[in-house]
Amino acid sequence: MKRFLAALALAGAVASPAMAALTVGASAPDFTTQATIGGKQFTFSLAEALKKGPVVLYFYPAAFTKGCTIEAHEFAANIDKFKAMHATVIGVSADDIEKLDKFSVSECQSKFPVAADPTFKVIKAYDTLVAFKFAARTSYVIAPGGKVLYTYTDGNPDHHVENALTALKTYQDEHG
């Protein structure tokens, strides 16, 4: 019964859109957390990443689930477009770092980092917590100054990458 309820909660978190709490123009909460790329762990700092350019911060419910795998593959397939706009991409979930070590290799194809937030500190700061145990599928584009440029929440992974690229292009066109 517990597994059924957990599966039902995850299905609801993935299937139904939620409202992102941070709006365009809001200050993005700074954070530092454990992350992994290609199975190699490191400490990710939003403040440090923003010194290099915009950051695409995306939250996803759980590694190795269907929608999260689709989204990770899509970000990996488009990583060169993000890099061309000097943007850093990082995914965040409540999964532990050991699970994400594997996910970063197989699904992210070692092309961008994913961060572990098992205590929900970052997930709560960005108000993406759903069903008390998952992050809503939410994408943010954050300007180097720390302001939210774009936010999008939808359980369907299909438009997150495309929308983030469009938001970055608009930012780039306006800021050179």
Biggest pleated-sheet summary? 7 strands, mixed
Q: Examine the coordinates and then state which fold CATH places here, giving the name of the CATH topology.
A: Glutaredoxin
CATH homologous superfamily annotation? Glutaredoxin
Question: What ranges have pLDDT less than 50 throughout 5 or more consecutive residues?
Answer: 1-18
**Which strand order spans the largest sheet, edge to edge or round the barrel?**
2-1-5-4-3-8-9
Q: What sequence of helices (H) and strands (E) makes up the elements?
A: HEEHEHHEHEHEEEEH
Q: Count of DSSP helices? A: 7
End-to-end separation = 55 Å
Radius of gyration: 15 Å
Number of domains: 1
| Number of DSSP-assigned strands | 9
General shape: globular
Question: What helical percentage do the residues reach?
Answer: 25-40%
- Estimate what percentage of residues fall within beta strands: 15-25%
Give the structural class: alpha+beta
Which helices and strands, and how do they pair?
Blueprint: H1 2-15, E1 32-37, E2 40-45, H2 46-50, E3 55-59, H3 66-77, H4 79-84, E4 88-93, H5 97-106, E5 114-116, H6 121-125, E6 129-130, E7 134-135, E8 138-142, E9 148-153, H7 160-175
